Amino acid sequence: MNPEQPEAEDEEQVEAQVEAQIEEQDREQGEAKGKPIGRRVLLGTLGLGALGVVTAPTLQRGLESFLASASDKDPTGLTGLLPNGGGFRYYSVASSVPRKNATTYRLTVDGLVEHPRTYTLAELRALPQNRLVRDVQCVTGWRVPGTPFEGVRLSRLLDAAGVRQGAGAVRFTCFDGTYTESLTLDQARRADVLVALRMQDKDLSHAHGGPARLYVAPMYFYKSAKWLSGITVTEDVQPGYWEERGYDVDAWVGRSNGRDDEPTS
């Protein structure tokens, strides 16, 4: 018997419970079906919270899975505001994000390098992997303690590419077509900066930025760009998506953005 099957069945049951709760809330509000999913998910989740079921581990997993799927189809952004048992929130700045898998995923390393290269997911997985267990801190305030990430040190990919003289920064692009980030070259070479392929001891899901994302352990989570597709070595730091909207470029946890959170690394 497939050992993962019982968990899958449990998650299906949880999703069915969430849907049932949504329908009940819709009836109570006298609303017809077909309203934007953000509002329906909000009502359903509040109903589940009142029942107190989100504290059970299996239900947490199911609710996280449901919210991740819902947020991918939610143009309102309301699902990003919802709490869940795992502590994470699901954010995207694009209206939709294409899905990549082991066959279609590619990661390009280029810019001021001697040896530009494009990696497949299999090639990234074949490189030495490093595991970090750190708290994840979002600049909006939520924190998830002791979260394992595994992947390839960014410094390894930079060394393999051969960074040219005069380079001072690294720019990251994503296959959502919108998000960007940057680090100084010194920051990018830190041992706690990964191209992450796994999170919480399983392959990165699409909702969490898979198949590969950036993970910058000592900085606020907006620096850990999801759906990573490009690593470009540049002369200077180019402000990323959120820096252009007022966030700090150097986003050290507890020492930036006007916050005093405990460091994560």
Automatic annotation (TrEMBL):
SUPFAM superfamilies per UniProt: Oxidoreductase molybdopterin-binding domain (SSF56524)
Signal peptide: none
InterPro entries, per the entry: OxRdtase_Mopterin-bd_dom (IPR000572), OxRdtase_Mopterin-bd_sf (IPR036374)
Positions of region (Disordered): 1-34
Domain Oxidoreductase molybdopterin-binding: 96-242
Lineage: superkingdom: Bacteria
Acidic residues compositional bias, start-end: 1-14
A Pfam short name: Oxidored_molyb
Protein name per Swiss-Prot or TrEMBL: Oxidoreductase molybdopterin-binding domain-containing protein
Native organism: Streptomyces shaanxiensis
